[in-house]
Write the structure tokens for this entry.
Amino acid sequence: MRSSDAGVRSLVAEARSVARVRSLRTFRGFLIGARATTMRLVPVPVRKTPKRSPTPYDVLFHSYVPTTAGADVIAYNLDTFMISVPKYPLDSPAPTPFSYTIYISDQPFADLNSLLRSFVGANELNIRGSILVMKSDSSGAICSMDSRDAFFVQRLVIDSLKPAYLDSLRFHSAKSSNSKSIHFFFTPELVVNMLSFCDFPTVMAVARTGTYGRSMARTAVLFRVRAELLPFIPREDFHTFMEMLYDTEGGIVGSVARLMLADNSLFMIQESRSGHTSLNSPFDLNIAVPVRFKTVAQTFFESLRYIGWKKLTLHPAYDDHVSEIWRAVRPAFQGAPRAKVTISLCVNGIMPVVLAAPLTALANIITSMTVYSVYPMSITQKESLRDWPKPCGPHCPAKDRRSVGDEGIALFRFNENFEEPPSRFEGTDYLLAKNVLAWKFSSRCRNVKCPNFTHPSRFLV
């Protein structure tokens, strides 16, 4: 944590740089650095607020105060970091012209603020991390502080961080927490509806917030799978279709699986605006099932009016993993469009078929319970690897990988209506452990930033 005197100078330079690059206004506030030797006035950027004056909630206090709310956190409670001081002295019987906001860290392992403890009367305050103090006028708008506020700020911070005052704030917060607005986020239907407009990484970020978020994300993914299948599977037959996938140990592969993972992403939006709509309209529904379930799968689709099964020619990439490929067509009827389904009959399970995909962006599968993506970073990438500005990491196509113990495969169980089969290896998904598979997508990597890069000239010798 850079809160020594040298560190404070560095933070000031960064804050000014952020303000300059993003064209933000700055206001002066007092920083009490955790390991600094003196309190200092620092420029603090605030968010753009075109139609009103900036308030304490618009202060970008992260520039100086360490928090656990990183760039990947989509929502966090500002009250965790803010202590409002509507007037000072705290017991003043009359309103005062200014109010104050103290920003503190929520990092449990940050350094104790030794500068604060050096103030008279503050030796018993165990506050961790740096502290930022900002001033607001009577209208609530942020205004700059100056050196004349220094001693005043010391007393204000000491009195406001004493347990008695903090306890009174917690009591007030508890009384006001009955606000109906908070219940909005605990209405499942509304949350799931919002997630239907988000890209898949955002849905996964919500899933990582806790039990409630994970439940909402599972429902959102289940609904998304159903929506992507609508051109091929009527809504009323969706659950029956999922049961068929479970019974046949099959999965959805190809363009429908990719669309489910890429939908609502910036990449797909840009493709649509450019007139490239093919990714939004899959040619057919690709299903992979073991050979022994051929009849079960075909019978199910025949019940949905698919007719005229034809055997297709195998792509060379699938020679070792697929015995036959069959396609049927459903004629348009009662407003439902014409649709095609393709069934790949797998020799050694469905996962080798996924790994044999000719493109990393198609190395995905959706089973009755779980969605898997072998190269999740490539799903919404239009650039080739030679244009990547950074190393490929675990997603490098030239990296020798394994289905057991691999850190690059992303998976998410979205459907708990089915019992998951036991896994061969503890801590490994049952499908990935069914066969221990080794693979790599290319003999060389064309990304010059990657450690696995091999120059084409070496292959000409």
User: Anything to note?
Assistant: The two ends are 52 Å apart (CA to CA). DSSP finds 13 helices and 16 strands in the chain. The chain has a mean pLDDT of 81.
